[in-house]
Design a protein that fits this description.
single chain; 322 residues; alpha/beta; 5-stranded mixed sheet; 10 helices; 32% helix
Amino acid sequence: MITGKICGTGSYVPPHVMDNDDMAKLVDTNDEWIRERTGIARRHVAKEETTSYMAGQAALRAVEQSGIAPEEIDMILVATSSSETIYPCAACEVQRMIGAVNAAGYDLNAACTGFVLGFNAAQAYISAGMCRTVLVVGAESMSHMIDWTDRSTCILFGDGAGAVLLRAEEDGAPVWTAAHSDGKKGPALTGLSRHRRDWNLEEEDKEAYIHMDGQAVFKFAVRKVPEIIEEILEKSGVSADEIDYFILHQANRRIIEAVAKRLKTDISRFPMNLEEYANTSAATVPILLDEMNRKGMFHEGQKLIVAGFGAGLTWAGCLFEW
């Protein structure tokens, strides 16, 4: 069996930080209120950086750690819903920045689920023999998509990028994936294009910002994430006790705690870094993977599950060995 093995990780977050006290200067909130409801203390906000730039920086660090030459990369997949341009796609910008002259590339948009779906797609390319080396990036500038006067959303999001480089491994450990969508429930989390011609572009139209039914999204996440993890475990024949880490999309501490409780699994196996970065959408999972990797928390043969959930509504997961 040919599977993709992670041989490098990287991440980038903007240096400009806004803590909860900074948010309290913009909207009626405070540090205690935000921490209690979300677990978030700070978020990194892009000032000069673009989504593509952050994606490129994360990619460079993943490639550097891997020791693989950029020319050996066959495919670049960038998960984003907030690229600064429609054309060229962020993946082509990353290709240019890192010198991956032989790589094909494209963007995919599945909001907060995007990186996990990109990771699953990379595994499919590799197992089918279509690619040998695939770079998967999640990058977002969420600060450009939120209404900074809307307390229900502006406190939740941050900016950043994370990347993993996968290389084909002969006789690799099996990789198990699952993914679902429910378009009927899409109105629970929306963000409309700023390029619609029927809008008055001389006036800011708040319909272009992210709008979220927080309760609906919370209920969706705490139900569907345990379900997809159980689906993957059933497919693989692996028990929850055999999983070393469950690396979930970093949206809200309460969601992650609820998922751990439903799976009857100790919260210590659900690492979190949202206190520092908030919700960076498609970037949360790869940023956390890179952070854990660089801390030496991963060891050969460990079993990991990654899972994402978000707008669409979409949700996806993958079980693989480090």
